[in-house]
Amino acid sequence: NQTIEYPTDIIIEVEGVYLANISKIEVLPEVENILPISHSVEQYFFNYDYYLMDFSKVKIMFPEFVKLSKLNDIQEEYTYIHKTMAEELDLNNNDFFPTKFGKNQTNIIVNQPIFVTKYFPLIKTIEERPFVVSNYRAEYENLTMITKIMINLNNSFDEEQSLEKIINILKTNFQVQEKNVSLDYNIPLNMCKYFFFVISLFICSLSFIQLISQLSPIFRKMNLRGLKKRHIYALLLKQFSSYIITAFI
């Protein structure tokens, strides 16, 4: 409600859904408009092309647009407008459109509100911070994950059934993504670590067995020869030192 002029019918919080999967919901006849939001609350995605325009000049020449949109607080010099409306206002007019952008550009920092007449309401910046507008049919749609979906439903459909249909699609997406194997670049390094750990453990075990086998004759000699304590300590120290050096290596 803080970001759009009229309340959204449905706000769904999601986890693990890629931007590309939104197209499955968008084509539903029950869905009138859909606005996916990424992990950042400042990033919004639209399936439209937008054009920067000088709204102050449009207001003079086409006052009917101003009456339709009911825009009072818009910054008129830099406003983004939908492609279809831009074509209606003569897209090639450089006075109206000093800059253009479309499908070839994926992320555009926007500091002003966006005017999306007929297609989506005016979207205001959150706490006067800039946000990003992207065409989500771009090359990053399979890499970007979203956390929230704002949906306006078609009034001719039952809201509860529409919601159930949307959630079923999202559940399917979850199942598909659970089967996907994500590449962990640390796997080779971890495998090497485990390999050397096992080898080291094996060597230490052999060294310990060797130590025990070497201590047995020493104790037998001590019993037979009646060695003095200092000789016993010297022999034990020698064997333990040999074991520690082998284990360290």
From TrEMBL:
The keyword Transmembrane helix applies. Keywords: Membrane, Transmembrane, Transmembrane helix. It comes from marine sediment metagenome. This is MacB-like periplasmic core domain-containing protein. The chain crosses the membrane at residues 194-212.
